[in-house]
Amino acid sequence: MTEETTELPRSVRELWGLTDHGRRGPKPAMSVQAIAGAAVELADSDGLDAVTMAAVAKRLGFTTMSLYRYVESRQELLMAMVDEALGPPPALNRRRGWRGQVEEWARAEAVQLLTHPWVVEVRTATPPIGPHTIAWMEVGFAALMKSGLAPDKAASSLLIVDGYARSHVRLALQYAAPGATEAWPAQLRALLDPARFPAVHAVLESGAFEDGGDDFPSEEFEFGLRLLLEGIERLARS
């Protein structure tokens, strides 16, 4: 084991399978994966604010202090939760070109985020380092580098695609209540002076603000994704 590995938190080492479970003595009563799984279930049902070490311990039938042997802080717990919620990355269609594969990647990520909506609320102090998260990065980087992008440009491009998917999901969740945006166009028509806001008025009359339903992937998501990939393709050709 390298010196860098020994400096990793225990929870990270266990997620990566680097802990020594072959030592003598009783097997651990819990695992980071089990703790993260229970925390994900709690967040899915009751929201992120409901996830405390005490609540997770109660769900597992253990004491709060016993959890700290596996997860030393809430930040570590959040990292493990996000990794558990993302799960393994999608198996991209090898017959598709790099653009098709990145489209699949972005759609799959958005679906996972919609399945576990609290993930877009998580704020961690350090970049993600869980094995599932890194596996998603590997798949995304590999697809983008097929375009001819250098590794650093592929990393920047995937960060933009990831940010777009998260932003779209965040907005979709923000206005997820039935009828949340239904009255907005009529309200705008009652307020807008076309002479003062000619551009907004033109967009309003085009029907762009009408509720297009809540199916995913939405037309807006696909439109924005195409724009992003057009830009990435031009970068790869330059």
Structural notes for this entry:
The chain is mostly helical. The chain has 2 domains: 3-85, Arc Repressor Mutant, subunit A (Orthogonal Bundle), CATH 1.10.10.60; 88-176 and 214-237, Orthogonal Bundle (Tetracycline Repressor, domain 2), CATH 1.10.357. The chain is built from 12 helices and no strands. The chain has helices at 3-6, 10-15, 32-46, 53-60, 64-67, 74-86, 98-115, 131-145, 151-174, 184-191, 198-205, 219-237. Helix 3 packs across helix 4 and helix 7 packs antiparallel against helix 12 (219-237). The protein is flat, with a radius of gyration of 22 Å. The two termini are 43 Å apart. 24% of the residues are buried.
Descriptive key words:
single chain; 238 residues; mainly alpha; Arc Repressor Mutant, subunit A; Tetracycline Repressor, domain 2; 2 domains; 0% strand; disordered N terminus
